[in-house]
């Protein structure tokens, strides 16, 4: 046994526990059947805990009586408005979506709690605080996302949502109970009463209007973003030279015709479209190399009206066994060509008059400064050098003379051999001072300056040494060595 509740936040399906709470399930089913809950507000929302509903007027109305049971509604007796609630020991508030009747203690018997029409739906798990205060009779099986929306609703200090959330319609999916006497099911949902309409704070329709306004604002922001992006792209094309200026717009008197038969010519299109007005130009675009038709064309009319008339009447017309498609031209290439040609002409005139501008113009190539007018250009002259041959020869001569003369002021570098030889320390510098003085007085150091060979022999002695078998040279060396030792001893004594 199930009941469908259509709320302004979404649909909720409740399964009824008829085996554990038969009387409360019967009361709830019959109230849904007679549309008693229609337009009932959802109130007392406690985040992640529960919300309450079931009173057609709600707690904000001064005319509210808190709701009544189906038996009190049929009989009209105040004693039948409530009935004793049954608390089954196996039913506990353990999970989200538990549905239970709101109860109040009996005036004369505090141990007995009475139920009417209002019920509670839990928004969180383990809400055992409600055990013994609310009698469970069902659970939500579909629409848990709706419970999330209700849980996230903006509420005031008393738990009432700022934007009304109401039960719009109820539908009984399965009813095992017989109808009590006097119950009549309405053919359609009744409209809300004046008392119910008076309890509206911010209606659902007003929220929808706000959402529509937000969507319109978002669409407007997206449109402005696209306009800025298009303007930036147009400015880029202008800087690259593809557009004459960024704000350029396609002409309104040119038609674009496509899906043409390859055999269709310019004259054919001009003859067909000329009945709408005077045609200034009609061109079928062709391949530059082969001359074959690319099957689209541009037709320029004298005025905008003729172009619009041709657009409305010539679309999908059969020409040469082909149904053509006609649209307004979005191309600005013709305007760009006109602008580019005019700009180039102005620049050439400015370059010719002022001897300036960009390189490559005819006046610049005729300057005697770069080449002679009467000098023919041969096949071997590929580069057309800027400097004349005389100047190049003079420069070559200057470079050759500079290389022959060499640098005037030579400063040895780190890798210069002469600098390395000069910087290398001599053996005499590393010896004691007395050794340096004694050797400086020795005639052996002067032999190398007087023409002695590398072995310490004079050239005149070399022949005599060869004659005497080399003994004279050895004796002379020994004598000189003895004299050096004697000088050293004399120097030490001093």
From TrEMBL:
Keywords: Isomerase, Nucleus, RNA-binding, Rotamase. It holds the Pfam family RRM_1. Residues 433-442 have a biased composition (Basic residues). It is an enzyme of class 5 (isomerase). InterPro entries: CRIP, Cyclophilin-like_dom_sf, Cyclophilin-type_PPIase_dom, Cyclophilin_PPIL4, Nucleotide-bd_a/b_plait_sf, RBD_domain_sf, RRM_dom. It catalyses: [protein]-peptidylproline (omega=180) = [protein]-peptidylproline (omega=0). GO terms for cellular component: nucleus. It is found in: Nucleus. Its EC number is 5.2.1.8. Residues 176-225, 390-494 are annotated as: Disordered. Residues 6-172 form the PPIase cyclophilin-type domain. GO terms for molecular function: peptidyl-prolyl cis-trans isomerase activity; RNA binding. PANTHER family: PEPTIDYL-PROLYL CIS-TRANS ISOMERASE-LIKE 4. Belongs to the cyclophilin-type PPIase family. PPIL4 subfamily. PPIases accelerate the folding of proteins. It catalyzes the cis-trans isomerization of proline imidic peptide bonds in oligopeptides. This is Peptidyl-prolyl cis-trans isomerase.
């Amino acid at each position: 046994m199930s009941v469908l509740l259509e709320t302004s936040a979404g649909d909720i399906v409740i399964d009824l526990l008829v085996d554990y709470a038969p009387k409360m399930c019967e009361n709830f089913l019959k109230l849904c059947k007679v549309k008693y809950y229609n337009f009932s507000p959802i109130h007392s929302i406690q985040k992640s805990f529960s919300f309450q509903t079931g009173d057609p007027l709600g707690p904000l109305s001064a005319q509210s009586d808190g709701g009544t049971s189906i038996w009190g509604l049929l009989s009209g007796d105040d004693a039948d408005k409530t009935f004793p609630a049954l608390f089954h020991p196996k039913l506990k508030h353990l999970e989200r979506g538990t549905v239970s009747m709101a109860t109040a203690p009996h005036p004369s018997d505090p141990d007995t709690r009475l139920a009417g029409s209002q019920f509670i739906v839990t928004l969180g798990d383990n809400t055992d605080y409600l055990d013994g205060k609310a009698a469970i009779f069902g659970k939500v099986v579909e629409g848990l996302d709706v419970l999330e929306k209700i849980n996230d609703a903006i509420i005031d200090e008393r738990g009432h949502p700022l934007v009304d959330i109401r039960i719009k319609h109820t539908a009984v999916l399965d009813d095992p109970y017989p109808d009590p006497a006097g119950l009549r099911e309405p053919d359609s949902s009744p409209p809300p009463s004046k008392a119910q309409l008076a309890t509206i704070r911010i209606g659902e329709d007003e929220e929808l209007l706000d959402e529509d306004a937000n969507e319109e604002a978002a669409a407007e922001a997206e449109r402005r973003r696209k306009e800025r992006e298009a303007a930036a792209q147009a400015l880029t094309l202008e800087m690259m030279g593809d557009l004459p200026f960024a704000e350029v717009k396609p002409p309104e008197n040119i038609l674009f015709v496509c899906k043409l038969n390859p055999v269709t010519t310019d004259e054919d299109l001009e003859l067909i479209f000329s009945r709408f007005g005077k045609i200034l130009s009609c061109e079928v675009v062709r391949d530059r190399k082969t001359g074959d038709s690319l099957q689209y064309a541009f037709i320029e009319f004298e005025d905008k009206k003729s172009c619009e008339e041709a657009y409305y009447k010539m679309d999908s017309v059969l020409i040469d066994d082909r149904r053509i498609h006609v649209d307004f031209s979005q191309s600005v290439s013709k305007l760009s060509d006109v602008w580019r040609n005019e700009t180039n002409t102005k620049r050439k005139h400015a370059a010719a008059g002022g001897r300036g501008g960009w390189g490559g113009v005819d006046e610049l190539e005729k300057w005697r400064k770069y080449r002679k007018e009467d000098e023919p250009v041969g096949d071997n002259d590929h580069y057309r050098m800027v400097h004349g041959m005389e100047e190049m020869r003079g420069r070559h001569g200057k470079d050759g003379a500079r290389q022959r003369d060499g640098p005037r002021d030579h400063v040895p570098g780190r890798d210069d051999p002469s600098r390395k030889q000069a910087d290398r320390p001599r053996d005499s510098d590393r010896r004691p001072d007395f050794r340096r003085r004694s050797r400086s007085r020795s005639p052996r150091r002067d032999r190398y300056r007087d023409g002695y060979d590398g072995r310490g022999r004079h050239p005149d002695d070399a022949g005599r040494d060869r004659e005497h078998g080399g003994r004279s040279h050895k004796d002379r060396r020994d004598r000189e060595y003895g004299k050096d030792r004697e000088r050293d001893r004399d120097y030490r004594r001093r």
